[in-house]
Design goal:
This protein has about 425 residues and is an alpha/beta fold. The longest helix is centred in the first third of the chain and has 16 residues. The protein is globular.
């Protein structure tokens, strides 16, 4: 979305984005999904006791709060080295959103006020952030979020990026500083901004490498693929809604990067392995929070056969009912069962990478960032109470703890 900060600037965007993320493979299958989820949860329950509940997150007050808003915990953020949990793995990447703004920090609300909501006690989400509606440019918020990621064992984020000069683009320096301090690595999630073309995708790769190529926080992975045989560690880019672009043109654009200092691992948003070769990418990722975990095994197998990277995306659920006027959908979290089923399926399929949808996309209710229940007038916001049987003070961290559990299983405890 990018551009200057404007009230309700993103109303139309979230509706379009939510619809695009609905894969054709997931339409009309709620009953089938329920069977798959129950089976997978049964498998996951064997020997899968969640880690002991601890207060891992570091919460900071992102905005001035109204009297009706719960006061966030303001305990100091631990340093990157002071924290227990599985070692963060760069084979696990969480999709991360840098688009939030507050009146106090940025001069205007951004995203929290979508669909004419009036923050801080009335926001465009079905959930309420434990630290309150915050600014993505607040250094304390960024540091706390990096700590959250480390607590969950997530070693990399794919930051949503909406073009050169956009709000997100102008916010990157602060994010890179926070990530570097915490030992988190950053990939880029190239979004379908206005005016994006196949040619601009390669130009954006060059631009971002030019800005951050020397940063220790830039994610680089060595993985020769069918698209590029180099063993040199390369930056990682995800291209969302790549199907909007002509495949031949996108392939030619990405081919222009091969064998140059800007050669990168480019992941194509698609549920089909063939999309990587068709579009000139190095791999595919699904992102889709509505996807069936039953589809992961075939996708991973097809990617392996084609020598492309596969990163199935696991998500706890979906709920955009408080953020869009039309196109509302809900995929219930089922107390964490949905998230477990997706993780179990991704690991059982032998996935090379796993991506998490999402760390903090609050509009669509896919976030694992700590949340709390909150009542404001007639409006009730969900927290994570009841997830994995936890409640009260332990509930906000439920999905961070469970992510840590699954990362440890995925990486073999390494």
């Amino acid at each position: 979305m990018g551009g200057p900060c404007q009230p309700n600037v993103n109303v139309s965007f979230t509706f379009v984005r939510a619809r695009r993320r609905k894969s054709p493979l997931t339409r009309g299958r709620p009953a089938f999904l329920a069977v798959i989820l129950l089976a997978a949860v049964g498998l996951a329950a064997c020997g899968s006791t969640p880690p002991t509940a601890t207060s891992w997150h570091s919460d900071v007050a992102g905005t001035p709060t109204a009297s009706s808003v719960p006061s966030p915990d303001t305990s100091p953020s631990p340093s990157a080295s002071s924290f227990s949990g599985p070692p963060p793995s760069t084979l696990v990447t969480a999709f991360y959103y840098l688009w939030y703004g507050t009146l106090a920090n940025d001069g205007a609300w951004r995203h929290w006020n979508q669909l004419s909501h009036t923050p801080p006690d009335n926001i465009a989400s079905s959930y309420y952030p434990l630290r309150g509606p915050y600014s993505s440019r607040d250094p304390k918020v960024l540091a706390a979020q990096m700590t959250d990621l480390r607590s969950a064992g997530v070693g990399a984020i794919a930051v949503s990026w909406w073009g050169q000069g956009s709000w997100d683009d102008q916010s990157l320096s602060g994010l890179f500083a926070a990530a570097e301090a915490a030992g988190i690595r950053i990939a880029f999630h190239l979004e379908p901004y206005a005016g994006q073309t196949a040619v601009s995708v390669a130009n954006d790769v060059r631009y971002l490498i030019g800005r951050f190529g020397s940063s220790p926080a830039l994610l680089r992975i060595s993985r020769p693929t069918a698209a590029s045989g180099t063993a040199v560690a390369r930056p990682v880019f995800y291209v969302f809604a790549a199907s909007r672009l002509p495949s031949a043109d996108l392939k030619a654009s990405l081919d222009s990067l091969r064998g140059t200092p800007d050669d990168s691992i480019v992941m194509i948003h698609s549920p089909k392995a063939s999309s990587a070769a068709k579009d000139g990418g190095d791999g595919v990722y699904t992102y889709d929070a509505l996807a069936s975990p039953a589809d992961f095994a075939t996708l991973v197998s097809d990617c392996r056969a084609a020598n492309v990277i596969c990163s199935p995306s696991v998500s706890p659920g979906f709920d955009n009912t408080n953020a869009v006027a039309t196109g509302q959908q809900v995929v219930d979290r089922q107390g964490g069962a949905r998230y477990d089923a997706m993780w179990q399926a991704a690991i059982s399929a032998g996935s090379e990478w796993i991506s998490v949808t999402t760390f903090n996309e609050w509009h669509e209710g896919t976030q694992i960032e700590p949340a709390r229940a909150f009542v404001s007038g007639a409006r009730t916001y969900q927290g994570f109470d009841g997830a994995y049987g936890v409640a009260a003070a332990d509930a906000p961290d439920a999905y961070l703890r469970r992510t840590a559990h699954w990362v440890q299983l995925f990486t073999g405890g390494a």
